[in-house]
Amino acid sequence: MEFLNVLNKVDVKESAVVRVLIVAALIMLIAWMFPRGESFEFEYRVGMIWVQKDLIGPFSFPIYKDEREYQQECEEAARKVSPVFFRRDEDLKSQVDSLRVFFSRVRAVIDLKAEYQRKLDAQARGEVRYAAEIRNDSLTLAELMEGLPLTFSAQQWSLLTRLRNAEKRRPRGGITLGTIEGEIRNSLNQLLKIGVIDTQKSKLQAKMIALRRGTEEQLVNPNRFFDHEEVSTIMNQSFASRLGGENDTSMVAFKVASGFVRPTIMFDGDETRKLVDVAQDEVPRTIGIVEQNERIVSKHDRITEITKLKIDSFQRARLERGKNVNVFAQYTGSAFHVAMIVLLFGIYLFLFRKKIFHDNGKLVLISLLLLMEASFAFLTLKVDTSAPIEFLIFVPAASMLLAIIFDSRVAFYGTVVMAFMVAGIRGNDYSIALASLVAGALSVYTVRDIRNRTQIFRSLVFILIGYSAAIFALGIERFQNLEIIFQELAFALANSVFSPVLTYGLLIFFERVFHVTTDLTLLELSDFNHPLLRLLSEKAPGTFHHSIVMGNLAEAAAEAVGSNSTLARVGAYYHDIGKTLKPEYFVENQMGAMNRHEKLAPQMSSLILESHVKEGVQLGKKYGLPDKILDFIPMHHGTTLMAFFYDKALKKKGKKDEVSENDFRYPGPKPQTKETGIVMLADAVEATVRSLDNPAVLKIEGTIDSIIKTRFNEGQLDECELTLKDLTRIRGAFLKILVGIHHQRIKYPGQEGGPPASDRRVGGGSETKEGEAKREAKEGQGKNLQRMPSASLYGRRRTGRKNDRT
């Protein structure tokens, strides 16, 4: 129970222990896929130039044949083995006696049937003396019928009865039952004397068979014997010619004869397999030997087929000599090999992508992608083929997924790791490492600024270009045959086609399982036809317009500080969706109607305003908004004070002690990311500038400065990563957008006047963004309308904050 309690307290998503376990499991699984004693320190193929130092045999070892060549020789040896048959020692007389017994029973059945029918007819005429005999004949007839090895139809029994009657009359000439018996006996004598083989002769691969009889064996031609098809043909022809062609009599004779023809030349499978095993054992496995200190290959020599066989045999000999000794040591070395590659990637994440490093869910996702590529490489080793299937290791698919889910830098470092890892599993194959790295890197750049899912398939051309460049470069360098180069290109083409398809399918899987919010997801959410945005535009059109303008502000500011501009824009679109439930309580949606807050207590008004945050989160979850977007709903207000209603409550109570400031603050939390901090500032700035009577450039600039300074001094930006430099850039981005929106226009005749004073409201008498922000803006207007340096604008409260992150 204590263990379970401790386990429940562990934060699985950010636990360092879980992180170590993930990395350890990844290293062990990939290390297990590394070859055991089958890899060589250098890549070598037939036709390549050996550029390393001379390879000298440290011990004597045999030169093994190529495995395919050896298997072909074994198959050829097996085909040359004569299959073993034995003659069954069965007396021909016993076969004839069995036939005679059969026809005797047939005659007895026919005669008994006739007698039985005669007695039944007599009984039908009124004679009762045959009652007991009829019962006995019936039982006897049943026993005789069951004892027959063959069954006949009623029509065939009728024919046999006629032949039996003809036999009793003994006419001169004509066909009787005895005639059929004689013809069958003659055919059996002819066939069984020559021999009937139990195997179809057309399926025998050997020209001769080994015929054994007792301890004697002789090679004979199987054509000396009859097989089943020949027996059927001979009997059909014989009965047709002697019994009157294709009539019922010949058919009955053929049926009886077929039941008595049994093979006399029998196949002996066990003995044949023994001979095959002996023949294959005699096939030489080696073609020579390399003596100790003999040169296997010299530097700058071209690798020939025999040289490759020597190197392959040297590897095999090393494996066999240390098979039971160095397995654990080799696995340990492979684990260190993988650890070096993986940990370098981990160091990069720790230094430059801390959010990924401290999120175990994202580490599991990256680990699955690495394991997927390792598995592809492992499978290419296990498939026994000479085709270049190593080009079916879909590294570009994993590279594109990393680029789409995270960013191009993470994807590039991940591609480097996967290229090294695949090369290691493939036995230090430099060729596939280079090809995977080039193709993977190009695929990363094609989806770097992806705008829709179909753009994934644009990478097909660039993946093919990457593989083709590597294949041609290495092929020309190694003087490879053009046939080999084109074969590799064909597999590279298959990779370039299937990688985008695999990326498309896995992207949907990772988004659903790991709750990943990619830029593609954000772009889909930015569509104004999204049900939630359509609901917002219908129920709260003022809020919808405010959100759209905010999205432009947030996007420009995010681009200025180098954060995710798409995330900031989409977050601004959905930050106020909670207002769709009570839109009439917010001034931008009142459209000249009476302000409902005038009849409510300040505490009730603050609860209504606060509820739009909670209800917005619930509504977002109902429509399946990602967590990244849901964060904007409470964070765009942070823990700011609803100052209008707080002041109204103070005036009503008269004493400050009787009003709690906490009752009029939003629940938070404060912005945790640059994007949520930008949306908080954009929310207040847009609302305030929209409420200005004369939005001149200097007035807009002073308003922006005042709002940013207020939020900064209140500590609302303390928990996000915005720096003083970022705030200055945000200020400039806001000013550029708002000046473009609120530029001065020419007043035409009749437009000099403004709206009546009674229609002008500061916040509409309600605590909205406009009301609160306008109050804050007034504090700065008139004091400093000129652009101020960031140190004087924001004070020295946050001078210790770090500079921009990489």
How is this structure best described in words?
- The chain has 806 residues and is mostly helical.
- The protein folds into three domains: 2-27 and 326-516, Orthogonal Bundle (Arp2/3 complex 21 kDa subunit ARPC3); 85-274, no CATH class; 521-744 and 760-794, Hypothetical protein af1432, CATH 1.10.3210.
- The protein is built from 32 helices and eight strands.
- It has helices at 2-9, 16-33, 67-80, 92-124, 131-147, 154-169, 177-194, 228-243, 248-260, 269-281, 305-321, 327-352, 354-357, 360-382, 395-405, 408-425, 430-446, 459-477, 482-513, 519-525, 531-539, 541-561, 565-574, 602-622, 627-630, 632-635, 643-653, 674-690, 697-713, 724-741, 769-780, 790-794, and strands at residues 55-56, 61-64, 84-87, 209-213, 216-220, 265-267, 286-290, 295-297.
- It is elongated and about 140 Å long.
- The relative contact order is 0.07.
- Residues 753-770 and 773-806 have low confidence and may be disordered.
